[in-house]
Each structure stands twice: as structure tokens, then as C-alpha cells.
Amino acid sequence: MWLSDEFPRDLRILRERRPLVHHFMNFVVMNDAANVTLAIGASPIMAHAREEVEELASKANALYINIGTLDEYWVESMIIAGKAANRNNVPVLLDPVGAGATRYRTETVKRILSEVEVSVVKGNGGEMLSLAGITGGVKGVDSVASANLDTAVKVAEEYGVTAVVTGPWDYVSNGKRGVVVKNGTPLLQYVTGSGCMVGSVIASFMAINRDFVKASVEGLVAFEIAAEKAEVRSKAPGTFKQYLIDELYNLTGDDYVKMAKVEVVQ
Amino acid sequence: MWLSDEFPRDLRILRERRPLVHHFMNFVVMNDAANVTLAIGASPIMAHAREEVEELASKANALYINIGTLDEYWVESMIIAGKAANRNNVPVLLDPVGAGATRYRTETVKRILSEVEVSVVKGNGGEMLSLAGITGGVKGVDSVASANLDTAVKVAEEYGVTAVVTGPWDYVSNGKRGVVVKNGTPLLQYVTGSGCMVGSVIASFMAINRDFVKASVEGLVAFEIAAEKAEVRSKAPGTFKQYLIDELYNLTGDDYVKMAKVEVVQ
Amino acid sequence: MWLSDEFPRDLRILRERRPLVHHFMNFVVMNDAANVTLAIGASPIMAHAREEVEELASKANALYINIGTLDEYWVESMIIAGKAANRNNVPVLLDPVGAGATRYRTETVKRILSEVEVSVVKGNGGEMLSLAGITGGVKGVDSVASANLDTAVKVAEEYGVTAVVTGPWDYVSNGKRGVVVKNGTPLLQYVTGSGCMVGSVIASFMAINRDFVKASVEGLVAFEIAAEKAEVRSKAPGTFKQYLIDELYNLTGDDYVKMAKVEVVQ
User: Fold this and answer.
1) CA B208 to CA B211: how far, in whole Å?
2) Which chain C residues have a beta carbon less than 8 Å from that of B68?
3) Residues of C with CB under 8 A from a CB of B
4) Confidence at residue C136, expressed as pLDDT on a 0 to 100 scale
5) pLDDT per position as a tens digit, C137-150
6) A21, A204 in Cβ contact below 8 A?
7) Model pTM?
8) Which of A135, A256, B37, B108 has the fewest Cβ atoms nearer than 10 Å?
9) How far apart are the first and last CA of chain C?
């Protein structure tokens, strides 16, 4: 399996270094995102004040901008932090939550992408289709369209990023290399912010691995293997979410070797 | 049992349509409210920015305004969204969290009720007594008074709404019809925002059923039957809350037929 | 064991009176903090609007200011509330989350301490070292330094407060009396905001016990005994957190007598 040697090593490095991941996380998912970040082995900080985001983003090992409950104040702070991250070579992950659902979200995502150098953009099918210029795939923050590797390639090329399209299968592309991840469970759709949480895990790997296609795949597989193991313990979303955090905490390199379903397609 | 035929059908319709419920939810309960909304079968979106709430509330299938952690910015956005919902025939649920506890909350609730056409007002005993003009029944956001059907009737008539008074027994009235719901468990008092969460379930039913007395009863019973089933699995609030979400997700029309304790009293 | 007679009585008083604890809690931990407050037996309210914090803090039985996700608006409200608490003899707990991590946090903590009469300051090792004038002990909101009783004594004397330094062992000092608490489990480091949650429990005891060294020890031991009991049920952080809330709810005076590890050292 691709990354069978690298994943166990990177997971170990992550847990040794405990990198600092500065989050702009939406209010709905802040707690889960912080717990997921701790469970995989990194150190989260949530902060949005203009007075400190430049300083924090400069010191962080990765910056994760999630626009889920955006407003004007937060967007300004996200851009200040993003620029500070860029100046300090801190990689940036953008989650364009609800892009395509309102004009404000679509415009904010484009504004961030034009003002900040983003390393990875991760969204669901509808959001990524919207970024690729295809509308009508979102209802609120839930995707009602399916995207594919072409969508990832198009977003990657258009914005010069590594693009991650989540869904039943996940597609990762930087325009040159493409990967499909087939792990996961439909139950994740019944846990609010599961897509936001996987972003925290990807950002944690970005903090220690500058090959962003690999870091994205590592984050996706780690989260989704944990979800598969959690689903064995519960098939209902309340308890499933707690087991998912447990399983992330207990995840080993060996789990990757045994359970990862990854295809390099380009 | 009243609604024995309609509840199973409405639950099925809800899960087929997955209606969009735009929430202004307090920061404390956002995550649980979103997960409860997904578990019953609807699609939640939390959004508060002036730049997008008009657009979102217009597209939503129901709007839920909960003032639990209000401030000036949020209140202005709630009113913009409420007016947009009214223009687009989107039903509005108002949860007057802490009405009577501070002047600001009491005044904000009255302002929303005067500027927005609200379909359902749902609060605990102290809050609804405060709306009915009787003070002294709240301590913070917890009720220390018991209200009854008269309180619901009075609020319904005074504000032209369907009024839902939650407590050991719940009272629903639109001024013409009255219903008492006797499901639930005292353990819900030890889960923060359980009253806010039941609002998410009522709003989900309002999105597919414009008989708001029935939608309110359907939401109350669904949530409280799930709570009764959860309590069988745990009698302590940490695990109980997770089982409650599980049981909402697993709820069937048959559960209503077997477990609902509903009396039509008017 | 010290407090073997007083703890059971104070826990009973707490659950009888259900004191109101006004929280300025960070967005990440609001839900857990509210549930922990309910589980120990008090009544939480989260509120930050300028229009109501003076009124609420005046009526509350304790005020808990946690700066975890601070910004300018919130800081102004914290100070308004703190002054109102002071005028009404309501005890104030300050959690200086991330002090030392950014200039803004360090300055805000000093500003609050100069404008508000704080009864208890509770922080992790890095934060409390920063308050004692020793920098370099924090990474984001996580402590990477170990402090000790000297740190607590120094903060207590410098600011005229009861100081609580949390960590593998916890140190409490008001400058005259010192106590070490040796309960707890390292698993708490994998639950985001576990330090913030223990603050809610301490504030709940402060609401009924004006000996703040004792109230601090009571809160620490209650939370950490619950954590020890939870760890018996799960050694992974997702389910552990739920069991922790369960065990706080089920805590008895007898648990203190059997399990407390408290040393009076001054």
C-alpha cells in the first residue's frame, strides 16, 4: 500500500513533535475539532482576535481556516493570519464550508484564495464543484452533488493548490498527482462537522509533512480508518462520534498498513 | 393515540426531504443542536452574518431563532433573517432563552415578536410566565417556576402564536387547541440546552408540517421518547446525551404509537 | 484527610442551593463547562452582551472569567461584569488561558487583574509561570513547563489572590496557606478544555464557600476524582469525557473521603 512506510513514521513524528495547529474553526465544531487534533497527537489553538492572530499564525506549525460560521470580523482576521502564515512559511489549509450556498461564502472563499497563499483546499462535492465554477450542488452546508477526480484536478489547477474533495470516495490532486481514498462510512454524514474534523487531522499532518498530497491522504485515511473502527462499536451517531475520537487516539501505523484503501491514479 | 397515523408518515417525509433548518443557535448548544437535527433527519445550517442571513433564511424550510447567547449584532441579524423568512413563507420558531432573567433578554424577545411573525414560541416555565407578564420564575436560564396550560393559552393569545411550555409536562396551545405531552425524564435538566435541542426537532417538523400544534407535539414527543429510551441505557448525563442522539437517529413511527403520552385537552 | 468533614457538607449545600455561576467561557469549551457545572450541582449561564452582563454578574453567586477565545468586545464585557461582581460581593475566578502565548493574552490578564478584584486565578504551569514573570513555558494553550508551589505562592503574593496551578500535581496557595492535590490522570491532557472545566467546578464551590483555598481544593479534588473513576471505565479520551461528566454527577462525599490525595504543606 502507498505510504505504508511513511504513514507509521509520520504518525510517530506527529506525536513526538505535537505541532501547534492554529484553527479558525466554526462555532459548531470547535470542541470536536480540538479533541480530534489532540487525539491524533497535535496541539490545537482556536483564536480569532485581530490583536493576536498575526502572532499566533506566525508561530504555528499549520494554519487551518474554516469559514463555517463566518462574519466580517472573522474574515478580516483569517486574512491577517493567512498572510502572516505565508510570510513565515506556515502551511495553510482552507475549508470553504458552504461555498455555493450563499454569495457571501462564495465571494469570501475567492477573496481568501486571492489574498492568501493556500496549500490545501478541502471541501465536499458541492463546495468543490462551486469552486470549479459548477453551481447547484449545495444545500446549506451539505453537499447534494457528487464530484470526482476531475473536480479536484480543476480546483488544483485553477487555484494552484492541493485539492481534496471529500465524499463516499475522496479525491486528492495537486494537478500533477491524483489519489483516491476509499475508506470511511456513510455514518459520518450524521455527525455534524465530520468534514471539518478531517480538516484538523489533515492540518496536523501538514504541520510535519510538506508533501501536501501525502499529508492530505494521511489525514483522510487516519480519520476514516478511525471511523471504520468506531462503526464496529456503534452504528448510531451519538456514541459513534465518541468512539471515533477514541479510535483516533488509539490509531497505530499498523492500522494504516492493514486498512488503508488508497489508489494512486495519476 | 392522537397522531398515531400522522407521526410515522411525517417522520418518513422529514427523512426523505431532509429540510434545511437555519439556526441562530447559542454558542453553548450549537454542536448538539446540529447533531440532533441530523439525527431526526433534517439538515442544519448555523449562520449569523448580516451578509448572508437574508439569503439563507429565504431558502430554508424553517428558521429557528434561539437567543441563548445574544448580543446586538446577533439580534439585528435574527430580525433581518426573521423578516426574510416571513416574506418567503418560511415558518419561524423562537426560543426566548432567559426571558425574565435580564431586562435585555425580555426586551429582545418582545422586539423580535413585534418585528417578526413568529409561528411557534417555545420556552421553559419561567420564560413563558415572563412572556405572559408574570415575573420571578427564572434563575439564569433555568426555570424555577411551574407553568401550565393557562400559561400556554395566554402566550398564544397575547402574541398570536403557537405556544409551547416545556417542563415535567409540556403544554402546547394555539389559543384554540390545547395538548399536554407527558413524555420525558427529569435527567434532561442535567443536559445543558436540552430545551434548545427539542427546539431543533420541533423546527424540523415545522419544515414539513404547517399545522404548528401538531408539528410541536411531534417534535416534543420524538425528542422525549428518545430521551426515555436513552435513560434505559444510562442514568447519568454524560453518556445519556450520546444515547439520546443515538435514539433520535433510530426512532421509528412505531415508537410513537407505543410510547407517546399525549392528551388533547381543548 | 483534610476537608473530610467539610467536603460532603459543601457538596450537599451546593446541590441544595444550585448557585448561579455566570461564565465568560471560551467557545471551544462552553458546552462541556455548562454540563460539568450542572453535573456537580450548580446552574450555569453563559452571557457576554454589554447590555446584560452587569445585571447578570450582580445576581450570580460566582463569576468565572475564562479568556480562551478572547477579543476586544468580550474583554470589555468581562471587565464590566467583573466590576459589577465586585460591587455585589460576588467572587470572581479568572482562567488566564494562553497567558504567555501572545502579548495580547498576557496584557489582557494583567488588565483584568488590575481592574477587577479577582478571588482565584487558576492556570496551567506555563500560564502561571508567565504571570509570575517567567516566560517560555507555553505553546499555544498547552503548558510545556512545570510549575510548583513556589509559582502559586508568587502569583498569590503578587496579585493578592488565591492561586491554583494545575498539572500532574496541583498547587494551591493564598500566600499564607499551601495545599498540594495529587489526584487526576494524564488522560485529561487529551480532553480539550479539561482545565477550563475544572474551573467551572471550582467556581461552583466558590459560590457556596468563601474560604477560597478550600473551595479551590474541593473543586480540584471533585473533578479529578471523577476523572479517576472515569478512567477505570475508559482509557481513551472520547468516551472518557462522557464518563467524567457521569462520575461528577454521581460523585458523593464518601468518594472524597476514600479517594482524595491532599496535602496541606504550609
Assistant:
1) 9
2) 46
3) 18, 20, 22, 27, 30-31, 34-35, 38-39, 43-52, 55-56, 60, 73, 241-247, 249-250
4) 67
5) 667 777 766 789 99
6) yes
7) 0.97
8) A135
9) 16
Virtual CA dihedral for B16, B18, B19, B25, nearest 10 degrees? Answer: 150
Residue A238 and residue B249: Cβ atoms within 8 Å?
Answer: yes
DSSP helix, strand, coil percent of chain A (3-state; round to 5) = 50, 15, 30
The amino acid that residue A264 corresponds to is V
The C-alpha of B73 sits at a distance from chain C's nearest C-alpha, in angstroms, of 10
Q: Could you give the percent of chain C with pLDDT greater than 90? A: 93
E-strand stretches of B54-193: 62-66, 92-95, 120-124, 138-139, 142-143, 162-166, 170-173, 178-181
- Between CA C230 and CA C248 the distance in angstroms is 9
> Which one-letter amino acid corresponds to residue A180?
V
Residues of C with CB under 8 A from a CB of A: 26-29, 31-32, 68-72, 98, 101-105, 139-142, 189-193, 234, 236-239, 241-242
Predicted confidence (pLDDT) per residue in C2-38, tens digit: 999 999 999 999 999 999 999 999 999 999 999 999 9
Q: For chain B, what is the radius of gyration of the CA atoms?
A: 17
Task: Quote the minimal CA–CA distance from B58 to chain C in Å.
Answer: 28
Confidence of residue A127 (pLDDT cuts 50, 70, 90): very high
Q: Given the DSSP bridges, would you call strands A170-173 and A178-181 parallel, antiparallel or unpaired?
A: antiparallel
Domains in chain C, CATH or no CATH each: 6-264 (3.40.1190.20)
Distance between CA atoms of residues B74 and A128, nearest Å: 29
- What are the C-alpha distances in Å from B73 to residues A51, B51, C37? 20, 12, 28
| Cα C12–chain centre separation | 20
Instruction: Please report the pLDDT score of residue B1 as a whole number.
Output: 87
Exposed/middle/buried for residue A6 (C-beta within 10 Å: 0-12, 13-18, 19+): middle
Nearest partner of B143 among B98, B106, B102, judged by Cα: B98
Residue B23, helix vs strand vs coil: strand
- Round to whole Å and give the CA distance between B38 and B44: 7
Question: Among C40, C43, C46, C250, which would you mutate to test the B interface (most chain B Cβ atoms within 10 Å of its Cβ)?
Answer: C46
Q: How far apart are CA A156 and CA A143, in angstroms?
A: 19
